[in-house]
Amino acid sequence: MSFKENIITSFYKLIRNKKNGYHLFVVSVCVVVLIAVLQFNKNLKNFINASENSNIEFRTLNIAPKSTEEDYGFSKLQNIKHVEFVYNSFYSSITIDSDLKNDKVDGMINLRVTSDEYLRQIAGENVIKNTDSGIMICPNRFYPDSNALNLKINEKEIINGNEFVGKDVTVNYFTKRFEGSIIVRDEEVEQKFNVIGTYDSEQAMQPNNVCYIAFNDIKKLLDKKVAKEVNRNSYYWYVIVDEVKNVDKTMEEIKKMGFRIDDNQTQIDEEQVSSINMILLFITILTMVSLVTITAFYTHKKIELESYNIGLLRALGYKKRTIRLSYIIENFVSAFVSLLIGSLLSIIIFIALKMTFLDNLSYIGYSANLDIASYLIAYTVIIIVNLISSAIVISIKINKNIISLIGEKI
Description:
Elements: H1 3-16, H2 20-54, E1 60-63, H3 74-78, E2 83-88, E3 93-98, E4 109-112, H4 116-123, E5 135-139, E6 141-142, E7 159-160, E8 168-179, E9 182-199, E10 210-213, H5 215-225, E11 237-241, H6 247-256, E12 261-264, H7 270-305, H8 307-315, H9 320-354, H10 357-361, H11 372-398, H12 402-407
């Protein structure tokens, strides 16, 4: 029998015997799990790499103010090599009402400051200097709502930020003051900002309601909004380093100058990542062990039921190699069909997740994509494990003497 005839016969035997359905289902589930683990691992690594390179918070250090210095250490920190920008964390951001409020969004936007170099990186030539006033840069996919910070975004209400370029956005807030030990509202203040440009918030890994303004503007806003009795000098310095690769050396230099560092504003939790990798490894090993066990049991059961036929073929002069090959091809066809079913299921599950849970993660730059390499690795592993485990079981059975094989059915 030719190889092609073997394939056709094996496929026919597979679909004819309904008992093969359980085996196909279980192996298909193993395929789905293995592909899911490989894809998640790949997407997680891509997200971590992208975060470290694109999210400015990974190169923003928290430095305790130095009370022995006249300016609390500001000038010394500012003059360190590789430092782009130093500012008081009290003035880092403010979430504030705007005139973009309607019945769909609450109009809350998050105003932040950052370095000129970073703005040039994400927004081209639309740079805001610290001494500027009344201008802002907003996301090109703008969602003026407090839920943007929680990634609860209504896609239909996302605004094309480019349409706001050249237009004004008005923010409003109440000034506050102390009456004894109680903070009370004072007067309502409005301020207009002209949108001079946009940036890709998803690529920058920032919420879709984050707009950048000049340091002078945010200082004025917060000085009015927060009671003057609050001590600004007790807040940490935020130090922005020019590149991620220079963070460690900059931290060492800052430590030598006697400053206390509380690491990065945002950093990868290595222990958590390690735990996730261990879980993924455990799931992979468990899947592989299950696959080997299931394949070996399935093959053993099938050979047991067909031992008489095997003995008869041996008696008629068929070589062991020919018989072994025919059963290995049967298992290969079974594994191939399981791969097709598993692949289809994994794609359906991926699309469902992409349209729900994973869709929201895209707003912070998490890109969940189908990885062809993950599928190819899964296919290779499934086929190799299937062929090896089935070949071992088949060889053990076929190597029995003819009388023993035929006698098992007599």
